[in-house]
Specification:
The complex is a heterotetramer. Chain A is about 45% helix and about 25% strand. Chain A has 11 helices and 10 strands. The termini of chain A are far apart. Chain B is α/β, with parallel strands linked by helices. Chain B contains 12 helices and 14 strands. Chain B has helices spanning about 1-20, 40-60, 80-90, 105-115, 145-160, 170-185, 205-210, 225-235, 255-260, 285-300, 305-325, 330-335, and strands at about 25-30, 65-75, 95-100, 120, 135-140, 160-170, 190-195, 220, 245, 265-270, 340-345, 350, 365-370, 375. Chain B is globular, with a radius of gyration of 21 Å. The termini of chain B are far apart. Chain C has one domain: Orthogonal Bundle (ABC transporter involved in vitamin B12 uptake, BtuC). Chain C is built from 12 helices and 2 strands. Chain C has helices at about 5-35, 40-55, 60-85, 90-115, 140-165, 165-175, 175-180, 185-215, 220-235, 240-260, 265-280, 290, and strands at about 130-135, 135-140. In chain C, strands 1-2 form a two-stranded antiparallel sheet. The longest helix of chain C has about 30 residues, at about 5-35. Chain C is globular, with a radius of gyration of 19 Å. The termini of chain C are far apart. By secondary structure, chain D is mainly alpha-helical. Helix content of chain D is about 65%, strand content about 5%. In chain D, the strands form 3 sheets. In chain D, strands 1-2 form a two-stranded antiparallel sheet. A two-stranded antiparallel ribbon of chain D has the order 3-6. In chain D, strand 4 and strand 5 form a beta hairpin. Chain D is globular and about 60 Å long. Classes of the chains: A alpha/beta, B alpha/beta, C mainly alpha, D mainly alpha.
């Protein structure tokens, strides 16, 4: 498998490279000349106060929004300007801050949609149930159940996903993203709305995702969580990157303390 | 909700079954566009048919049997007309079917009724319904070609040579337009321009402007829709003062009223129903026409139109043939196609095995509009 | 083509265009308040004409028109209250289907209340054959009535939506129903009111166009399709744009008739609709940026 | 047989049972309307998928039905004898793709085999739906409804305005569809039972295909689009392509219904492309519960059967209007589901909700 080999050879290079990304809404500079890289196999956190442009940055990377200027390279190839489904096909999966579950589909089916990119069957094959689609379907189902198992959801596989509790919907969304077999996963505030026990579990899950060889880019408000799990952290404020480094470095950064932690203290 | 619907359906089915348990009347099917785009034709026809059947039954029926009219509203939809025709033929085993009033539906039913050996007396104008002749298919309205001939003869008298034609995009309009184009050379008429407008047209100023630019000496409009009142209005509004000829589709006083002053002087061929009272007393049709007109107008409180007359003629022909032949269908068909001298509203019917219409161009009189009423053009 | 002929085509385009425009404005009112298209708008036009025609033998024309407008507005209110008002968060597909159903019901009701016959109101000024001469071409004075009502409607509506509190409240409902509710606006009443106004305007349109177009129970849908085309081309919600687009479409149709068979007239009009919808759904007279905020 | 196929077996059994009952009670004429209802059902099955599973409304499917019907009607009534010297005609004749016969009026005619016109109809409707779908499917809601309505109206006016297509009269004297085994699918009384089994086999076959599709990879993707479009895109679903493919598929279904309707009734008129027909199809899907193939089939058969038998009389359109509004007011997700009779598979409610409240929109509005 030469392609696999090639990919491996680039492992030392950054998996995701964001250069001078810019996007505004009307007069608001939501993401303002942001650059950073995410090396392969790393958990990278993004923090910043509300409205700092974190979700916009995710939307730009995932292709839901198009940048006005700047470039994004994934695995050494440009992905800026591609539609979301093509970016997903390249191997970037995501979850949402406000969970976006497929309503009126079962949990299992939700996860199976995640396998979309990793299966082939088209309209005609689906209608005729060609043997290869039957095999494929079996494989996809088994793989999805595996993921549900991993995230502790096997018993709800046949339930309507939108009827689940919020925390479990998050897990379904995560399983769905993992089903894509991504190389990079974007997690948008995965701990929001979770209780303490679930948050602890989440930290464990994120680490095990990394252990599967998937690079993680995570936006989170829960400071202890993100400081705990991130290898590196990017700090955004009003769309600009104000700091980048390990948790230790960032925590000591005067700029960060001023605009971010200072705020937190004031609020707290 | 669902169970209530089920009850309604069951009730309908039961009702239908119980209806069928009566003694043997002659069943006559009628398929008319009582509502929908061709309701101008179908509604008066359906009323007429009901009236005729009622009066025949009150008088003791035909050949000693009562007549049952099975009326279906096709909404001018051929698929529904076909479904109803099959239903009437196979299930009700009707003796004959009258209608429909559009040529599109009639042509769809032509082979169907012929193959099923059920008499179909169409109330639509197009000549293709009886040409080629199908043994079981008849029609009562006058021939389009005869209407055209009468118009062209009048034009020859008036010395008109160059004309413009407008027609609606219905079967009636298309058939008339085709006849106008076919027969023009025979009468030395030059059609400078022919335009088709939508049956729902609301303003035709642009099209009459276009025709005016062609310097024509007369305009012929061929339609059955309300738009035929718009044409004269728009012509007068743009001061386009050439004679306007209309088709026999103009045979409804409603359209004259709609066109108001602009209708004055319109010349058109029509059966004599519209001018029944103006006919000389010795005219063979006068009595029939006056009676139908009086009956219809008293019962339905609206003016009679020639379209209802076509249904009258269809039933008159059918009843006459049944009287002659008794209850046998084959014999009735033979009697029908050998009917001669039957006085109807459209003219005097003289059918033959090769002519399943039986009207000639004398069935048409040229009419015109004076003071908001129809008058005979010859008397002008 | 002589200049006189060109003017005649333009005038005939203005005649039909003014009819389209006034129907289009009715679509805009409901759209501006609710963001939905009322597929039964054409039936309001038909109802207005029919009611006025039935009343005119018993009273003077202006009174018949006024009464027809009031009755149709009441029908609009009733329809909205019965079929739309009490729905909790209706889906757009649901609203489309309900208004389509409503249009069928109103049409069938008209068929059974009146009949299949065609009728029309008398000309407001002059008679069927009166016409006004402009540069050697002719136009019916009724056209000025239609244009006048169009103009008045545009001015009054812009004053209403721009200057009056209730008008601004109605616009707020469309822009952001939640925020409007939070500001104490009774959103449901505003939507009902928009149906009342658009039904009233539709009825008025039905009355002024009736002498030109004639009225019968089926005339609503064709008028609605043209009216909608014009509303889209002019930019939904923009009544000035609707008038401009109406006249433009009328004139395009008139000239299309001058060079090709009339049978293609409606195909051209609807193709324009499809082209505008596909490539510039904001309409021709609205800036793209404004349209970018809408969801198509 | 797995439980999945039980409903199909039940449907097949019902079809056979009805035929046997009508045979023993001598009421075979009921089959006529059941055949026509089945043909209209083919249209709404396709439309059900488009509306219920992908959430796209179309008021243009009557247009595709007419495209199918007219292609079949024109192809099989166009007399090729005068053009016999044309290369294409000669080639077709040599390849056995034409039929020569004498029609009921004693005229010799040579026409294309219905198989050729069937293929042509499906291709034509596929290509046209593709061309129209690319720009139009970018629209949503009212805009999509109006655009598809406009498309249907264009087809209607083209049919009315072309002499070649018979203008308002439409096309008549369309021959039957010759099938292997010497049996002809047409409206003749002695072919009725076989015609009945043929169309119902077609319907059941189509139902199986559609059922498979709904439960396959593309079907899941479509339901995901309906469930949450942005998330579906982020999962790698090419939403535009899937919507377009489904639009084409449903258009081809409509054309298929049209082709066999033309052969069964021996003709087709322009009213088939009319707006009211399109509204009827939408109404039936709505009554059936939007995303319920079985509900749609049931609604289609019942409503079409009653309408074609004339039970509604002159109130036919009014009945459809009332049904439309009632269903939308009382049970927008369909009557069957309202009554709790909706069980497509083991688990409840696996099909997408017809009218999910747009959480997306709520959120956007809330934070705007």
């Amino acid at each position: 498998m030469p392609s696999r080999f090639l990919r491996k050879s680039r492992c030392s290079v950054a998996l995701l490279e964001v250069n001078d990304l810019f996007r505004s809404f009307g007069g608001l500079r939501a993401v303002d000349q942001v650059s950073f890289t995410v090396p392969n196999g790393m958990i990278k956190g993004i923090i910043g106060p509300n409205g700092a442009g974190k979700t916009t940055l995710f939307n730009l990377i995932a292709g839901s929004l198009v940048a006005e200027s700047g470039t994004i390279f994934f695995d050494g190839r440009p992905v800026s300007g591609l539609p979301p489904h093509r970016i997903a096909a390249r191997g970037i999966a995501r979850t949402y801050q406000n969970v976006k579950i497929f309503r009126q589909m079962t949990v299992l089916e939700n996860v199976m949609v995640g396998c979309h990119q990793r299966s082939r069957g088209g309209f005609l094959a689906g209608m005729l149930r060609l043997p290869f689609t039957v095999r494929e379907e079996r494989r996809v189902r088994a793989r999805s159940l595996e993921l549900l198992e991993m995230l502790g959801l096997p018993e709800v596989a046949d339930q309507d996903a939108s009827a689940l509790a919020f925390g479990r919907q998050r897990s379904v969304e995560l399983a769905r993203a993992l089903a894509l077999e991504p190389r990079l996963i974007l997690l948008d505030e995965p701990a929001a709305g979770l209780n303490i026990r679930e948050t602890v579990q989440l930290a464990q899950t994120v680490r095990s995702i990394r252990d599967l060889g998937i690079t993680v880019l995570i936006v989170e408000h829960d400071m202890s969580l993100i400081m705990d799990i991130s290898d590196e952290i990017v700090v955004l404020d009003f769309g600009r990157k104000i700091a980048e480094g390990t948790a230790q470095q960032v925590r000591r950064d005067p700029e960060v303390i001023r605009v971010y932690l200072g705020d937190e203290d004031a609020e707290g | 909700m669902f169970s209530r619907a089920l009850v309604v359906v069951l009730a309908a089915v039961v009702g239908l079954v119980s209806c069928a348990q009566q003694e043997e009347p002659i069943k006559v099917g009628a398929i008319f566009s009582v509502t929908g785009p061709a309701s101008f034709l179908g509604a008066p026809a359906a009323r007429t048919a009901q009236m005729m059947v009622d009066s025949v039954n009150a008088a003791g029926g035909i050949a000693g049997r009562q007549v049952r009219l099975l009326l279906r509203d096709s909404v001018a939809d051929p698929q529904r007309a076909i479904s109803f025709a099959r239903q009437l033929i196979e299930e009700e085993e009707v003796f004959a079917i009258i209608g429909p009033s559009t040529s599109g539906e009639s042509m769809q039913l032509k082979s169907l009724c012929n193959d099923a050996q059920t008499i179909l007396i169409s109330c639509a104008a197009a000549e293709t319904i009886v040409d080629p002749v199908a043994p079981y298919v008849f029609k009562t309205p006058q021939k389009d070609s005869d209407a055209v001939r009468r118009i062209y003869e009048t034009m020859n008298d008036l010395g008109i040579q160059r004309i413009g034609v407008t027609a609606s995009n219905t079967g009636f309009g298309a058939a008339g337009r085709a006849q106008l184009e076919t027969l023009a050379p025979e009468y030395g008429i030059d059609i400078a321009i022919a335009e088709v407008y939508d049956r729902a047209a609301t303003d035709l100023t642009a099209v009459v402007t276009k025709i005016r630019a062609e310097n024509v000496e007369a305009v012929v409009n061929w339609s059955i829709e309300p738009a035929q009142s718009i044409i004269p209005r728009n012509m007068r509004q743009i001061a386009f003062d050439v004679p306007l000829f209309q088709s026999h589709g103009f045979g409804n006083i409603q359209y004259v009223r709609e066109a108001g002053e602009a209708a004055e002087g319109i010349i058109f061929p029509a059966g004599r129903l519209l001018v029944a009272d103006l006919l000389p007393d010795d005219h063979p049709q006068k009595e029939v026409l006056q009676k139908y007109k009086a009956d219809y107008e008293t019962r339905f409180n609206e003016e009679v139109s020639t379209f209802g007359g076509h249904a009258y003629d269809a039933l008159a022909l059918l009843f006459n043939a049944i009287e002659v032949a008794g209850g046998d269908r084959e014999a009735t068909r033979d009697a029908l196609q050998n009917t001669t001298g039957l006085v109807g509203t459209a003219g005097i019917f003289n059918l033959s095995p090769t002519d399943h219409n039986g009207l000639d161009k004398d069935a048409f009189a040229m009419l015109t509009v004076r003071d908001g009423a129809f008058v005979l053009y010859e008397q002008e | 083509m002589s200049s006189e002929l060109i003017i005649q085509y333009i005038l005939s385009g203005v005649t039909s265009g003014s009819v389209y425009a006034i129907v289009a404005i009715g679509f805009n009112i409901i759209y501006n308040t609710t963001g939905i298209i009322n597929f039964a708008q054409g039936e309001f036009v038909m109802l207005g004409g029919m009611i006025a025609i039935s009343l005119v033998p018993f009273m003077p024309l202006p009174m018949a028109v006024a009464l027809a407008v009031v009755i149709t507005a009441a029908v609009g209110a009733l329809a909205q209250i019965a079929f739309i008002r009490w729905l909790k968060r209706p889906h757009v597909l649901q609203l489309i289907i309900i208004t389509i159903g409503l249009s069928i019901l109103l049409r069938e009701a008209a068929l059974h209340i009146w009949d299949e016959k065609v009728r029309s109101l008398p000309y407001f000024t002059g008679t069927v054959v009166t016409s006004v001469r402009i540069f050697g071409a002719y136009v019916s004075p009724q056209v000025f009535w239609v244009l006048g009502v169009c103009g008045a409607a545009v001015v009054l509506l812009s004053l209403f939506f721009g200057r009056t509190l209730i008008g601004q409240a109605m616009r707020a409902c469309s822009a952001d129903p939640l925020a409007a509710t939070l500001c104490g606006i009774n959103q449901k009443n505003m939507v009902t009111l928009s149906f009342v106004i658009s039904a009233a305007l539709g009825a008025l349109a039905g009355c002024v166009v009736s002498p030109i177009t004639q009225t019968h129970y089926e005339c609503g849908t064709p008028l609605a399709i043209k009216g909608f085309t014009v509303a889209i081309v002019g930019g939904l919600g923009n009544s000035t744009g609707a008038v401009a687009a109406g006249l433009l479409l009328g004139i395009i149709e008139a000239f299309s008739i001058s060079i090709m068979p009339m049978a293609y007239k409606d195909i051209i009009a609807i193709s324009i609709l499809l082209a505008v919808l596909s490539y510039r759904p904001t309409g021709l007279f609205v800036r793209r940026e404004v349209g970018a905020l809408k969801e198509f | 047989m797995s439980r999945e196929w039980v409903p199909f077996g039940a449907l097949a059994a019902t079809v056979i049972l009805i035929q046997l009952v009508t045979m023993f009670t001598n009421t075979q004429y009921y089959l006529t309307q059941l055949i026509m209802a089945a043909l209209y059902s083919i249209v709404v099955i396709g439309l059900c998928l488009l509306m219920g599973y992908a959430g796209q409304i179309s008021l243009g499917h009557a247009g595709f039905f007419a495209i199918g019907g007219y292609t079949a009607a024109v192809g099989t009534t166009l007399n090729l004898l005068p053009h016999r010297d044309h290369v294409l005609v000669r080639m077709a004749e040599r390849a056995g793709l034409t039929i020569q016969t004498t029609n009921s009026w004693g005229v010799d005619i040579l026409y294309f085999s219905p198989w050729i016109t069937l293929l042509a109809a499906l291709l034509l409707s596929g290509v046209i739906s593709l061309l129209i779908g690319i720009p139009v499917l970018r629209l949503r809601g009212h805009y999509l409804a109006m655009a598809t309505l406009g498309f249907g109206a264009i087809i209607y006016y083209i049919l009315l305005g072309s002499r070649f297509l018979g203008e308002a009269d439409g096309i008549y004297d369309v021959p039957g569809f010759g099938l292997p085994g010497g049996f002809t699918f047409d409206g003749a009384r002695n072919n009725r039972v076989l015609s009945y089994y043929f169309v119902w086999a077609l319907v059941i076959g189509l139902m199986v295909l559609m059922h498979n599709l709904v439960n396959s990879r593309p079907g899941r993707a479509l339901r995901a689009i309906h469930g949450n479009e942005p998330a579906a895109m982020a999962m790698g679903v090419d939403t535009a392509r899937y919507k377009l493919s489904l639009f084409v598929l449903s258009a081809v279904c409509a054309a298929l219904g049209g082709v066999f309707m033309a052969h069964y009734n021996g003709g087709m008129g322009p009213t088939e492309a009319g707006t009211l027909k399109a509204v009827r199809y939408v109404a039936i899907v709505a009554v059936g519960g939007m995303a319920s193939l079985w509900g749609t089939l049931g609604a289609s058969v019942v409503l079409n059967f009653l309408s074609l038998r004339g039970y509604f009389g002159s109130l036919d359109d009014a009945v459809f209007g009332v049904v439309l509004i009632t269903v939308m007011l009382v049970a927008p997700d369909g009557i069957l589901r309202r009554l709790g009779m909706y069980t497509l598979r083991r688990n409840r409610d696996t099909a997408p909700d017809a009218f999910p409240v747009s959480a997306e929109k709520q959120v956007q509005r809330g934070t705007a």
